[in-house]
């Protein structure tokens, strides 16, 4: 049986690996892995830190972007990848273009490595919860149809009332992005419109309904119709859509017609800017649309097929949680219902 670390406390990662049935020395790379059955000894040339670097490069599209994301200098990121490629005796990136592009081997390593990173974070987090009841970090994903300020207000109440040392991560997602984060354990709580195919098996508290207006700039051709616009009218003109933020699932879309030209942007702020410039039309939550309509920079366009009010709920997985998650489950629904007019929801 492996004896490493016997006489000293285990770090988070050492605890993680030992819990998985193997014992690793993390003092150096390559890592020496000794199977607890005593059957095999192998040298593993990769660490969790190297996987984090690989993941950051893929997400940011460059070594410099990854360095910024990880608070490292670019040379440190480059060295990590060069050392990893040397130790594994394979190329992980195709360096012929300007953008960092993974080779097939690099892509496979990243896909499998992301599962290990998620598992490591989950095991360490669950161990800490068992130790003191408070999560070290709680991630709350909020769909972009919801204003963030009422939830930030609740976060302020949490900091004032509770004595735990939980870091809160509040992330804004679009369409399937929040579901992707919750179902893949990158978020602990989700506030989002219902998608029945994702919600099965989850705990849920209904918060209200979000209503939408179809809008465009005052000089858009659809504003000159003397009747509600039907699908054929709308299909002639470009739709402004916000990109789904999913990482691991097929992207979703709503309010988009077949064969309709589109301009895809990354946020509702960008969508509003494109709408104001007359670049297209599209649905906006009433809370976002009404001030712009009153200001005269956008016009509500009557449509034959109005978008139905969208039910919004709080979701979380049916697994043991810490005190911070329980606090938000208890307080977030009542807080948002009190703020329903501010967030543009109907009860």
UniProtKB/TrEMBL annotation:
Lineage, opening ranks: Bacteria, Pseudomonadati, Pseudomonadota
This protein's UniProt keywords: DNA-binding, Transcription, Transcription regulation
Occurrences of domain HTH lysR-type (ranges): 46-103
Family the UniProt entry places it in: Belongs to the LysR transcriptional regulatory family.
The name this protein goes by in its record: LysR family transcriptional regulator
Gene Ontology molecular functions: DNA-binding transcription factor activity; transcription cis-regulatory region binding
Transcription keyword on record: yes
Domain of life of the native organism: Bacteria
Keyword Nucleotide-binding in annotation: no
InterPro entries, sorted: LysR_HTH_N, LysR_subst-bd, WH-like_DNA-bd_sf, WH_DNA-bd_sf
């Amino acid at each position: 049986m492996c004896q490493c670390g016997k006489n000293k406390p285990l770090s988070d990662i050492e605890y993680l690996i030992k819990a998985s049935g193997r014992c690793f020395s993390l003092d150096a790379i390559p890592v020496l892995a000794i199977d607890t059955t005593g059957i095999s000894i192998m040298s593993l040339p990769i660490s969790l830190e190297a996987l984090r670097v690989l993941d950051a490069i893929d997400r940011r599209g460059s070594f410099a972007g990854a360095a910024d994301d990880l608070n490292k200098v670019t040379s440190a990121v480059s060295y990590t990848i060069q050392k990893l490629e040397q130790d594994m005796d394979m190329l992980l990136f195709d360096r012929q273009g300007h953008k960092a592009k993974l080779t097939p081997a690099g892509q496979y390593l990243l896909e499998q490595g992301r599962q290990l990173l998620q598992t490591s974070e989950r095991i360490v987090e669950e161990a800490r919860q068992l130790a003191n009841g408070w999560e070290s970090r709680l991630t709350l994903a909020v769909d972009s149809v919801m204003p963030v300020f009422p939830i930030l207000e609740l976060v302020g109440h949490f900091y004032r009332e509770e004595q735990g040392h939980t870091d809160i991560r509040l992330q804004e997602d679009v369409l399937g992005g929040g579901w992707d984060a919750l179902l893949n354990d990158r978020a602990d709580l989700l506030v989002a419109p219902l998608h029945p195919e994702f919600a099965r098996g989850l705990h849920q508290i209904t918060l209200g309904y979000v209503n939408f207006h179809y809008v465009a700039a005052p000089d858009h051709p659809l504003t000159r119709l003397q009747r509600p616009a039907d699908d054929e009218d709308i299909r002639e003109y470009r739709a402004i859509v916000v990109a789904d933020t999913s990482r691991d699932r097929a992207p979703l879309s709503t309010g988009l017609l077949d064969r309709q030209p589109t301009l895809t942007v990354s946020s509702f702020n960008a969508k509003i800017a494109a709408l104001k410039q007359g670049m297209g039309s599209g649905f906006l939550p009433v809370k976002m649309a009404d001030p712009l309509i009153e200001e005269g920079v956008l016009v509500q366009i009557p449509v034959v097929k109005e978008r139905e009010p969208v039910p919004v709920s709080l979701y979380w997985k049916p697994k043991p949680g810490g005190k911070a998650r329980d606090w938000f489950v208890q307080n977030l629904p009542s807080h948002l219902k009190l703020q329903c007019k501010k967030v543009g929801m109907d009860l």
